[in-house]
Amino acid sequence: MQIRKINRRDFLKQSSVLSASFLTSGLPVIAGPFPPGALADGQIPVDKKLDPAWIKSLYQRGQVTTYLKTKNELNYIGMPVGGITCGTLYLGGDGRLWLWDIFNKNQEGIEPKELQWDIGVLDKSNVVKSRDGACYVQPAQNIRPLEQGFALQIKYENTTVIKQLKTEDWPEIKFEATYPFATIHYLDAGLPVLVQVEVYSPFIPLDAENSGLPAAIYSFQIINTSRKLVEVTIMGWLENKAGIYSGEQTIHQRYNTAYQQPGLSCVTGSIRAKGSALEELKLKPDYGSMTIASLNKNTGFVGTDITWPLADAVFTQPSNNTEAIKDIKEKLIGGVGHNFSMKPGKAVRADYVISWFFPNLQLKEVPDKKRYYANKFNSSLEVATYLQQNFKKLSSLSKLWKQTWYEEATLPHWFLERTFANTSTLATTTCHRFGSGRFYAWEGVGCCPGTCTHVWQYAQAVGRLFPLLERETREQIDLGLSLSENGAIWFRGEADHRPAVDGQAGTILRIYREHQMSTDSSFLNQNWSKIKRAITFLLTLDKNKDGLEDTPLENTLDAVWDGEIAWIVGLCLAAVKAGQAMAEEMHDADFAAVCQEYVTKGSRNMEDKLFNGEYFIHRPDPEKGRAHLGSYNTSHIDQVYGQSWAFQVGLGRIINQQKTLSALKSLWKYNYTPDVGPYIKEHTGGRPYALAGEGGLVMNTNPKQEAKPYGDNQTWQLGYFHECMSGFEHQVAAHMMAEGMIEEALVITRTIHDRYHARKRNPFNEIECSDHYARAMASYGTFITACGFENHGPKGYIAFAPKINPERFKAAFTSANGWGSYSQQINPHQQVHQIQLKYGDLQVEKIKLEIQDKQPIQKVIAKLGKQILPVQYTQTDNSILIQFNKRQPLLTNQTLSITLRF
Q1: CA distance linking residue 545 with residue 547, whole number of Å
Q2: Reduced to 3 states, what is the DSSP secondary structure of residue 787?
Q3: Helices 566-585 and 589-609 sit at what angle, rounded to 10 degrees?
Q4: Mean pLDDT of all residues in 387-412
Q5: The dihedral sign for the CA sequence 163, 168, 170, 175
Q6: Nearest CA to 412 among 763, 745, 761?
């Protein structure tokens, strides 16, 4: 591994210049000024002094976030653009692909490196490694182990212009950041054409198969803006790097093969043995193939002897199976391209595919050694062929999701982007899917194995977008391989045969979510005995039977804490309440009663014993006291996390509302700062996940100003308390949104969004313990609560209660077997609510909607298309529950409309 080093002092000098230029790049100064001494001794400012105009802008629809070359915003962009669980392939800001972590190298971090840091990180060393945030401090860029790109040749009025799609060749490039699509505009006022490229991999919620293709698609649109004929040639090329690590000069050679059939012209590259060592080669992690394909007519091929600049002469029309061969040390590049003429004002579309096939996924922790996509394909050529044969369906459904999520919604663009961007973690080497179908993940790229329960339980995106993956993980691992006889769930699968208390509770809540995201009760029925065993284990962790978990076990802050800890207690209460709900559905009245008694007792005692009048705390063990690390009287970021989880799955209240709100307001008061600089200057040891000049919600602060707030034995894990880890911040934002603290929720989410502005680092890589950290997918939970969304598939129940601009609202939703959009429009006389299904089907029996202004309803009209449906309804002060006479199926392209008249 090549180690890159940068001194912290040198970095801070650079960052001061960076900050100055950053403020002129379009981002506003959001807070201040603060009077002298206001931030002395690293205190969090009580008055955040946030700019009112900036606050107002957070609610506005705005525009797609567009990063510009002229503002120096393209250097760090790396949007994962391959299929989910297929490796990491980055799309750069100028449209070129980079990183190329598709060869199963299994390294820690996207760019293993070390940075010198004057202040010890986690009190262990003065070095920032990949798992400590090296790519936060010094973002990765320009990692190009192979050559790839596209070029245009434009002929008009006896003029020929050749431009590659790269930063240097265009006066302006605009990158629209709407994962899973990026739209890139290449602008040159001197040319008679407009050039736009959409880059994506098929992404269709609920369809993990077609969303997991090892391929990237380039869709060009070129418009002739002149009054004369323009001739254009598009050419794409790809270097064959099969065997990038294993290839040996004396025994291996790379070869490219041209292949053509109706609708598909491609060059496929692979590696082979010169002698008899082919079978051994086939077992290597980097054995496989790569393909560049054109899905267009009039396509020609580019041979290995490419000379730049592009010229017409490089195009040939070889017969199928024409080979080009090179030794390992030589570059072997092949390409495809086609020519077309454009009349004035006309537009042309052209589609290209880059696919790969490297099936030998070798992780030492697990026996399964094959990638899931190898069940369906045998080569990158087969991947490209499948895309060509199904292109219309795959591209149209992917674009329909983009349209539904981004274009039709009324939520702010920046909010939709940030709450969805972390879903791209699924398309990185954080996540894998084995040949058995098993979903397996690190915490972050190559770091901390075993789909860790106490990290992954924060991630809300996968369960809503690809519920099959989560259901299978619950069945195969949490209730299978990892389930002990006593009900304890190993928190890292094969990698660690221990339970983690928060992971156990969170997994039970995920089980309930996976049940809700099913079409029927078969998942619950088949697994109930195991689920019940896992819940029973959780109940045994309450040693003194007061409803407050107090058995010391591992937690997500990598320590074993003694005593009664509000955030763990509350999480356990939420899990047991989920157990009660599942027991009731299973008609297991005795167990439901046990769960109910525990929750009632625990909620009461949590509020009585762990609430200090302002926020929830950690009560020390009566015998051990503060001998070990803990949060004690500090303001801890997760203190009411259990209630946050409850809102994600419609469990209602488990903690008193006023005390919960007081706790959240304390987090805002004591933990949020628009500039972490003064705080981290005084509170050292944390990893650099937020730097001076950037805002954040600090993990733990000490409002009581105690001398030893975190216990007598202040170990290395104490450094965590002084960090800003975005997954925890997203969890709090989701909770605040649910409780009506909308402004605070938006500020926290936007603060994270701005920390990951492309001027500073990769917008698609929220970093915690290594890159593309799984916990950051908690951001999807903020979208869920912004919509007030609840869904219970087996019961046919769905609910919406939008929090942002509810008078005119529209947003996407996903259910067990279908997705679409929900909209509502409100005026003084009526409310109109519509569920438009765009994919799959939705079975509806009950709908719960929010009523504005608490008006009495005079009439409810329900229509499926033009058909009026009979309904019954029950109104409370601020909501209405509508029930159909029978379960109503809603099919693709159907709209269910509910009109409430006052």
Answers
A1: 6
A2: helix
A3: 160
A4: 98
A5: positive
A6: 745
Residues 790-901: name the CATH superfamily. Golgi alpha-mannosidase II (2.60.40.1180)
In order, the DSSP letters of 385-441 are HHHHHTHHHHHHHHHHHHIIIIIS--S-HHHHHHHHHGGGGGGSTTEEEBTTS-EEE
Give 855's pLDDT tier (boundaries 50, 70, 90).
confident
pLDDT in tens, 856-865: 899 999 999 9
Q: 711 in the Ramachandran plot: left (φ > 0), alpha (ψ -120 to 50) or beta?
A: left
What angle separates helix 726-738 from helix 657-671, to the nearest 10 degrees? 140
Kindly list the distances between the CA atom of residue 313 and the CA atoms of 190, 234, 458, in Å, as whole numbers in the listed order: 25, 14, 56
Q: Which residues contact 469 (CB under 8 A, 6 or more apart)?
A: 208, 433, 439, 462
815 HSE (CA, 13 A, CB side): 34
Q: Which residues make beta-bridge pairs with 869?
A: 862
CATH class held by domain 411-787: mainly alpha
- Give first-to-last CA distance, the chain, whole Å: 69
Pick the closest to residue 422 from 177, 145, 170 (CA basis).
177
Within 8 A by CB and 6+ apart from 389, the residues are none
The pLDDT of residue 811 is above 50: yes
Q: Do 411-787 and 790-901 agree at the fold level?
A: no
Could you tell me if 637 and 732 are in contact, meaning their C-beta atoms sit under 8 angstroms apart?
Answer: yes
3-state secondary structure of 506: helix
For the record, the structure tokens of 49 come out as 């002094």
Residue with tokens 């046919």: 796
Q: Where are the alpha helices (DSSP H) in 716-813?
A: 726-738, 742-755, 779-787
The token duo for 835 is 């569920």
CA distance readout (Å), 86 to 80, 358, 359, 370? 10, 9, 9, 11
Reported confidence tier of residue 33, pLDDT bands at 50, 70, 90: confident
- Rounded Cα distance between 647 and 663, Å, is 16
Q: Any idea where the domains of the chain sit in the sequence?
A: 411-787, 790-901
- DSSP secondary structure code for residue 376 in this structure: T
Q: What is the mean pLDDT of the chain?
A: 93
Kindly report the backbone phi and psi dihedral angles of residue 542, in degrees, each rounded to the nearest multiple of 5, phi listed first.
-90, 95
In the DSSP assignment, the letter for residue 46 is: S
122 has pLDDT over 90: no
What would the pLDDT profile of 161-178 be if each residue is shown by its tens digit?
Answer: 999 999 999 999 999 999
Question: Look-up: residue for tokens 């329900």?
Answer: 862
Return the DSSP state at 722: G
Q: Under a CB-based contact definition with an 8 Å cutoff, are residues 192 and 226 in contact?
A: yes
User: Can you give 193-254 as a three-state secondary structure string?
Assistant: EEEEEEEECCCCCCCCCCCCCCEEEEEEEEEECCCCCEEEEEEEEEECCCCCCCCCCCCEEE
Q: What's the sign of the alpha-carbon dihedral 668, 670, 672, 673?
A: positive
Report CA dihedral (585, 591, 593, 599) to the nearest 10 degrees. Answer: -90
